[in-house]
Design a protein that fits this description.
The complex is a heterodimer of chains A (197) and B (161).
Chain A lengths: L2 E3 L4 E9 L6 H11 L9 E4 L5 E14 L2 E9 L7 H8 L4 E7 L5 H17 L9 E6 L9 H8 L6 E3 L8 H19 L3
Chain B lengths: L6 E3 L1 H17 L4 E6 L4 E6 L6 H21 L7 E5 L4 E7 L3 E7 L5 H27 L12 H6 L4
Helix pairs in contact in B: 1-3
Classes of the chains: A alpha/beta (197), B alpha+beta (161).
The structure holds guanosine-5'-triphosphate and magnesium ion (MG).
C-alpha cells in the first residue's frame, strides 16, 4: 500500500504488472524505462533467467512529478508469468496499490489469459485484497500479430467489469504510457479517498 | 490474511529513526546502514550512501526478505529474522525488525560480524519501539491524508510532460 512520507514529502505507490508468461510485462517496463527522462527514473532491475524470462520480478522506480507539494513516486513491478512461479507472484503482490493486467491477444493464449486472471484474483484475495476494489486496468498486448482475437471478444472474457482498457504493442510502445497513466490516475484518485488503507 | 497497515512517516519519528541509524553506523563501524519497509521502500539511510543506489538496494532487500519469508512459511518456521551475506570486501547483515521493517548493515574488514550483531540487536529494540509508536499514531482517527483535496486537475498535471 502507499507509503506517505511527510518528512521527505513523498508519496510512494506500488504498481504490479500481471499476466501470463510471455505476454509482454517486462517489455512494457523496458519501454517505459527507455522513454523516460533520466532524472525521472531509477535503474531497471530485472531478476531473470538466462533466457530472459522473469524469475522473480522486474523493478522500475519512477518520479511522476509533484502533487500538492509531495513527490509522486511510483514503483513498477512485474511478476513472473510462468505458471510454476506462483509463490513468487504472491510475494510481489504484497502491498500493491494498483494492477495492470497484460493480456496476450493471440488466440492460442486465450486459456492462459483466463487462468492468469483467475490466479490474480486468488492471490489477491489470499492477502485480503479484492481485484474489483483495487485500481486496475487491462492492456490487450501484441496487437501487431496476425493471429489475434478481436478486442470485443477479449473484453468480454477478461474485462467484464469494464475497467479502463487499452490495445498495446509493447515492443514498439503503442499503448504503454496510456496504460501506465490510467493506472497511476486511478491510484492517485484512490488516495484522495483515504490513503489506500 | 489481513492487509498490512498503511505506512506513514512523520518528522518526529523520522528524526528518532535517523538518530538510531546514524548511531549504528558509528557504533558498528559500518559503511552503510539503511532501513527499508517490507514493501521495498527506503525509510532512512546513513553512512557512505552517496555512491550507492539505495532505491534499487531497498527493492532487492525487500524481495530477498519476502523470498526467505516464503521459505520459512513452507518450513513452518516463523520467520528467518537474520541473514548474513559474506563478500570478499564487504558483508551485508540483514535483520527483520518487528516483522515490519528491515535493517541492513553493510560493513567491511574495519568491523566484524560479532560487533555488528551486538549493535544491531540494541538498535533493533529501539527501532521496534519507535515503529510501534508510529503505527499507533497512524491508527488514530484524524490522522488523515493530505491528499483528500487532490483535484482531477492535479492528477492530470502530473502527466503533462
Ligand atoms: N510481436 C510482439 N511481440 C511482443 C510484444 N510485446 C512483447 N513481445 C515479445 O514477447 C516476448 C516476451 O515478452 P516479455 O516482456 O519478456 O514477456 P513477460 O510477460 O515479461 O514474460 P514472463 O517474464 O515469462 O512472465 C519477447 O520476445 C517480446 O519482445 C508485442 O506487442 N508484439
Ligand atoms: Mg517478464
Amino acid at each position: 500500500m502507499s507509503f506517505i512520507n511527510y518528512m521527505a514529502r513523498e508519496i510512494n505507490c506500488k504498481i504490479v504488472y500481471y499476466g501470463p508468461g510471455l505476454c509482454g510485462k517486462t517489455t512494457n517496463l523496458q519501454y517505459i524505462y527507455e522513454r523516460t527522462n533520466p532524472s525521472a527514473k531509477g535503474k531497471l532491475i530485472s531478476l531473470a533467467t538466462e533466457t530472459e524470462r522473469t524469475l522473480f520480478f522486474d523493478f522500475l522506480p519512477l518520479n511522476l512529478g509533484e502533487i500538492r507539494g509531495f513527490k509522486a513516486r511510483f514503483q513498477l513491478y512485474t511478476v513472473p508469468g510462468q505458471v510454476f512461479y506462483d509463490a513468487s507472484r504472491k510475494l510481489i503482490l504484497k502491498g500493491v496499490d494498483g494492477v495492470v493486467f497484460v493480456a496476450d491477444s493471440q488466440y492460442e493464449r486465450t486459456e492462459a489469459n483466463i487462468e492468469s486472471l483467475e490466479n490474480l484474483r486468488t492471490n489477491l484475495s489470499e492477502q485480503g485484497y479484492q481485484l474489483d476494489k483495487l485500481p486496475y486496468v487491462v492492456q490487450y498486448n501484441k496487437r501487431d500479430l496476425p493471429n489475434v482475437a478481436d478486442v470485443a471478444e477479449l473484453r468480454e472474457l477478461l474485462n467484464p467489469t469494464n475497467v479502463p482498457d487499452f490495445e498495446g504493442v509493447a515492443r514498439t510502445g503503442v499503448g504503454v504510457f496510456d496504460t501506465l497513466k490510467a493506472v497511476a490516475k486511478l491510484v492517485l484518485t484512490e488516495l484522495r479517498k483515504g490513503g489506500g488503507a | 490474511m489481513a492487509r498490512d497497515q498503511q505506512m506513514v512517516m512523520y518528522e518526529e519519528e523520522f528524526n528518532q529513526i535517523q538518530f538510531v541509524v546514524d548511531k549504528l553506523v558509528k557504533d558498528a563501524n559500518a559503511k552503510v546502514v539503511f532501513i527499508v519497509d517490507k514493501n521495498g521502500q527506503l525509510i532512512a539511510a546513513s553512512g557512505d550512501v552517496e555512491n550507492l543506489d539505495t532505491t534499487s538496494l531497498a527493492s532487492l532487500t525487500a524481495g530477498n526478505i519476502a523470498a526467505t519469508g516464503g521459505m520459512a512459511k513452507l518450513l513452518r518456521e516463523d520467520e528467518f529474522a537474520t541473514q548474513f551475506h559474506e563478500g570478499t570486501k564487504q558483508n551485508v547483515h540483514i535483520q527483520l525488525v518487528g516483522n515490519r521493517v528491515i535493517l541492513v548493515v553493510i560493513f567491511d574488514a574495519r568491523s566484524s560480524l560479532g560487533l555488528v550483531r551486538l549493535r544491531v540487536k540494541k538498535a533493533s529494540e529501539e527501532l521496534n519501539r519507535i515503529f510501534e509508536a508510529l503505527l499507533k499514531k497512524v491508527q488514530e482517527p484524524g490522522a488523515d491524508t493530505p491528499f483528500a483535496e487532490i483535484s482531477d486537475e492535479d492528477i492530470d498535471n502530473l502527466f503533462n510532460d
